Amino acid sequence: MTPRTLLLPLVALIVAAALLAVQLAAGGADFVPTRAADPCAARPLPPVTDDIEPLAQDVVLLGVQRTACALGVTRERLVLALPSARDRAELARATGRTEAGLATALRSGLDQAVGRLDRAGRLPRASALLDSYAGELGLPGLAEAAVKRIPDGVVDGLLPTGAVLRRALAQLDVTALLRDLEDPDALEARLTEAIKAAALAEAKERLIEKIPGPIRGFLGL
Amino acid sequence: MIAVLSLAVGIVLADSAIVTLALPEILRQLDAEVSEVAWVLTAYNLVLALAAVPAARLCIKPGHAPVAGAAGLVVFAGASAGCAAATSLEVLIVARVVQALGGALVIMACLELLVLASGDERRGAARWAVAGVAGAAVGPVAGGLLTQAISWQSIFIFQVPLVLLAVPVAIRLRGRSRAAGATVADSVRAADRPDAAANLALALLSAALTAALFLLVLLLVEGWRRSPALAAITVTVIPVAAIAAGVVARAARAGTRSEAIAGAILIGGGLVALGFLPDANPAWTLAPQALVGLGLGLTVDSLTAVALRDRFPRALHGGWTIAARHVGVVAGLAILTPIFTADLRDAQAPAQEAIAALVLDAPLPASAKLDLADGLGRELESEGGRVPDLAPAFSAVRLDAADRPRAQALAVALDDQLERAATRAFRDAFLVAGALALLAVLPASMLRETRPEAGA
């Protein structure tokens, strides 16, 4: 080929390479979906809330992250798999566990989340949540009003939020909870019941502890 | 006369890709899968590739070209009407097969008829080649605009009167065809062998060019959810650049081989650049398309001219170029469709995870997130693997005034993730198409060197 006949292919090559360089410099190789974050990497904790819904969200998000870290999958994969029985079974298989093992891992992750929030002082005091709690207890009007009049110190002493949540988790049937994920009403009822039962049990235990030993023995408590 | 015959050639070759922009609409209306709807393109190109050489053999017989041409035009027009009336994918594909059979007769007869009408072999063949390139380049644009303005069926309805215009012209040339006849020398002369290098380069470049149009249009309409009209306007860059390539070729005067090599590099470079788009803005596709268009203009008509030059019989070699180009189109579709459909499937999991991450971390109440997740799941499921429109999921969620701007920001972020996933899913197919174009440099470098005639 003569220099004249070489010129056109050479110009074509330079133009094509220049365009590719511009596109790569503008991020052409990186225009891909954002990769899910490492679930084992620490995330900043949320601020303290005095409402039930954001508290539940904080616990679940942190718990799911801890569970995902333990299972060796991304938080997003775990969340996407949980609502479907087929996907849960596949995830359990992929992570070398049974479905019951998956439920245990989730319970443990949620428990760790409550522990971490508690240690960092990010759990609200029970007295701050009382308005929501009182409503959830389904007490008659006068009883609810009476509960709201209990001094904050007494409420916080009887119902430490971390302890109540951990107790609720311990008593919760996580396998049944996972089955309820597709039925929000059943899920809410199950969670409310678990928290109510945990709160009552915790308060009862702490009240009994406050009774002097001889009287406790006399009463057979 | 010449204009009407050129128009018929242009329409038949435009049909090779004219439904590209209508495919998403056909996909929805006829309830088909991407891999199934690709047969609307594949069937036409496959039959055209197989029928081109037999049609050419028919047309080289003295006096046969006008009759074959008129018959082909009527069959093509009838089958086009059949395509418009199709209510199932199967009927549409059968009508496309018949359309391609008629189209093969039209193209091969028109090569002879254009030579007769031009009164000069080289000029007639050049007009035939240019009409084919123009049709192939303009086809997707015209199809997209008609789909957006009226319907995908209108693409086929509009063709019927336009191709039938050429019937009286073909019949009028019957007398001239008989008079031209075959010389005694022609009757004893054996047919020349096809130009393997030019035809192979044409096949490879056609495979790559199919990718440029088919994949780019699918990316714009299905991946980025732009309207067919916007996609049509966007892809006009290719025909405009193809026309501009004539100016470049005349200025460079580098010869056919040099033009073919440069054109293959430009098409390959443009396709690789389409594989590395940095944003889902259609403006980013313009420069790569310009390269593809310039490459198209530099290669296809000059390679066709090389394949026809000084070869006997002309129509038969014309048939080989058509067969090569459409074998290339079919091969391109066969190679690239499974690649990008598999990549689209593989893109779903990372896209869903990216969407889930954004929803989980969004500063919205848990109840709103749950409703949103429910709606997003339904949208993803209803689209059956296609890129969904997420807006209905957001409009179904009741939000406080304070949360609406946050939800709006989330919607924008989710759309960005979907566009990223779709763009990434097309990357491998564009890169493979770019490799096919660059492979054409090899046969192109084996072409006989010819210099353009002064003033051509």
From TrEMBL, chain A:
Keyword Signal: yes
Organism: Paraconexibacter sp. AEG42_29
Entry protein name: DUF4197 domain-containing protein
UniProt keyword list: Signal
Signal peptide boundaries: 1-28
Automatic annotation (TrEMBL), chain B:
Localization of this protein: Cell membrane
The entry's keywords: Membrane, Transmembrane, Transmembrane helix
Domain Major facilitator superfamily (MFS) profile: 1-452
GO MF, any single term: transmembrane transporter activity
Membrane topology label: Multi-pass membrane protein
Membrane spanning residue stretches: 38-60, 67-87, 93-116, 128-150, 156-175, 196-221, 227-248, 260-278, 290-308, 429-447
Principal location class: membrane
Record-linked InterPro entries: MFS, MFS_dom, MFS_trans_sf
Pfam families: MFS_1
GO cellular component terms listed in the entry, alphabetical order: plasma membrane
Transmembrane helix keyword on record: yes
Cited PANTHER family: CONSERVED TWO-DOMAIN MEMBRANE PROTEIN-RELATED, MAJOR FACILITATOR SUPERFAMILY MULTIDRUG TRANSPORTER MFSC
Record protein name field: Major facilitator superfamily (MFS) profile domain-containing protein
Species per Swiss-Prot/TrEMBL record: Paraconexibacter sp. AEG42_29
Phylogenetic placement of the source organism: Bacteria, Bacillati, Actinomycetota, Thermoleophilia, Solirubrobacterales
